Amino acid sequence: MSDNHERPTYPEEQKVYAGMVRKKLRESFVLTPKACVVTYGCQQNVSDSQRIKGMLSLMGYGLTEDKHEADLIIFNTCAVREHAEDRVFGNVGATKNLKRAKRGLIVAVCGCMAQQKSVAEKLKTSYPYVDIVFGTQVTHRLPEFVYKRLSGGKRVFELALDNERIIEDVPIDRENKIKGYIPIMYGCDNFCTYCIVPYVRGRERSRDAQDILKEARRMVSDGYKEIMLLGQNVNSYGKGNADGINFAKLLRMINDIEGDFRIRFMTSHPKDCTEELLDAMKDCEKVENHLHLPFQCGSSRVLKAMNRRYTREKYLSLIEAARERMPDIAFTSDVIVGFPGETYEDFKETLSLIDEVRFASLFTFIYSPRGGTPAAVMPDPVSRQEKGRWFDELIKLQDKIQKEYDESLVGKTFRVLFEEEAPDEGYLIGKTDTIINISVKADRSLLGTFADVKITNYDGTFSGILEK
Ligand code: SF4
Fold it and tell me: What are phi and psi for residue 411, nearest 5 degrees?
């Protein structure tokens, strides 16, 4: 099966470098080398950090959360919001003293923030104690970078953006044994005018369906109960692959894998969300009864300025089409308040859309300019205070809707996956396929299993009982 993306497996060369790192560490009498991975941002970054941890154990590093214990500290950064970067620079700056106290400590910075040339330059000039800076598409070369630094080589700065290849079979350490991520595609071609992601994650590239299926089968046979398919825009999965397998078909193929598990996915984009996809969600019993579909704004005029390429009407028609097929589906979304040029009249359209759709929950943001994006230079006459007032109005509305939605679930029975222990002794947290967390009195032996639970109470959080 050919496609237009090369997909080499994990390079032998990197395995050799990993072996050389292990040898170097033994020679330097670091008997139990430890690495600390600090992850910022989205689930894609969490998934990338799991691959970083997989390569670290290949190099012989154990993991620690404590930077003082670490022989190698890696900051996997996020670039979505400018002020988040200041926090990262602060944390990286704090390693200066750690390095003074621990000779041989290696400090590395990677991820979306590091992928920006301006940031890499700043780290090069103003943070001389940072040893390695690498971008979002060369993560798989970590052993090589560490070996070069360990053997006294120059500081490493590697930001190559190669929009062609997807490296398969990178070692991975998923930590959680109940649920796990499978990235199905990388990059984004949408260029929403407020977003930095396309500039730091490159062009869209979809993994081959057979590689994804192989990974999913392995996870299911390893006992995973939930698979989260990841991508900046999963709905455009398969674009450019010769096998004609799009996201809807991929969902059906994963759903056909033998086993009792749940399929979730994130993030969708209304411009690529199709009725074919909604049909697949309805037909596939393993697929969650939830859709995270960011609408961002209720005004078609502002959506145009955001380059979102759908209108308010299109968005609402998708919601309607989904509800026709799955009446109890839960919708979540993202919304930006105060996009440059947005008026109060536009904002009222956002409020009315929220009132019409009634989201199970919303991720809400006040617009924050992101340097390097088109929106950052657009005229923005409305004051931050005024936008803050709009934002409060939106939160008030969503809190009311969400409370009514949550209260309407009391008395209903859901199939939950027991994912973790609750703070209260003898209780577990079960998550429904509409992403509701319910606290249930249950033995911890039920962790990692599905069960039917009836919601008995809601007082800001849900509690329920096991159905016999
Ligand atoms: S779809 Fe838009 S907001 Fe999402 S990652 Fe791509 S450019 Fe950014």
Answer: 100, -15
CA–CA dist 450, 90 (Å, integer)? 43
- Range with the poorest average pLDDT among 73-82, 190-199, 326-335, 378-387: 73-82
pLDDT at 451: 98
- Rounded to the nearest angstrom, the distance between the alpha carbon of 359 and the centre of ligand 1 is 21
State how far the Cα of 292 lies from the Cα of 363, in Å rounded to an integer.
10
Kindly report the number of other CB atoms within 10 A of residue 446's CB atom: 15
User: Cα of 305 to ligand 1 centre, how many Å?
Assistant: 14
> Which atom number of ligand 1 is nearest to the Cα of residue 191?
7
Residues in a beta bridge with 430: 418, 438
CA distance 15 to 341: 52
Ligand 1 atom closest to the Cα of residue 195 is: 8
**Domains assigned to the chain:** 12-158 (3.40.50.2300), 179-397 (3.80.30.20), 413-466 (2.40.50.140)
Give me the DSSP letters along 312-335.
HHHHHHHHHHHHHH-TT-EEEEEE
Helix, strand, coil % over all residues of the chain, rounded to 5: 40, 20, 40
Residue type, 167: I
The helix/strand/coil state of 436 is coil
**Cα 188 to ligand 1 centroid, rounded to whole Å:** 6
pLDDT in tens, 389-414: 999 999 999 999 999 999 999 999 99
Q: Please report, for residues 172, 181, 277, 291, 455, the alpha-carbon distance to residue 47 in angstroms, rounded to integers and kept in the order given.
A: 9, 6, 24, 20, 32
In angstroms, the CA 41 to CA 287 distance is 25
Q: Ligand 1 centroid to 194 CA: how many Å?
A: 8
Cα three-residue angle 192-137-48, rounded to 5 degrees: 90
Instruction: Write the DSSP symbol of residue 437.
Output: E
Give the number of other Cβ atoms within 10 Å of residue 91's Cβ: 16
Burial 208-228 (b: 16+ CB within 10 A, else e): bbebbbebbeebbeeebbbbb
CA 46 to CA 33: how far, in whole Å?
Answer: 22
β 427-431/462-466 pair status: unpaired
Q: Alpha-carbon Rg of the chain, whole angstroms?
A: 23
* Digit-coded pLDDT (tens) for 167-177: 999 999 998 89
Distance CA 187, CA 271 (A): 16
Which amino acid does the sequence have at 382?
V
For residues 216 and 182, the answer to whether their CB atoms sit within 8 Å is yes
Residue to mutate, 44, 136, 197, 336, ligand 1, most ligand atoms under 8 Å from C-beta:
197
pLDDT digits (tens, 9 = 90+) for 297-336: 999 999 999 999 999 999 999 999 999 999 999 999 999 9
Burial class (CB in 10 A: 0-12, 13-18, 19+), 86: exposed
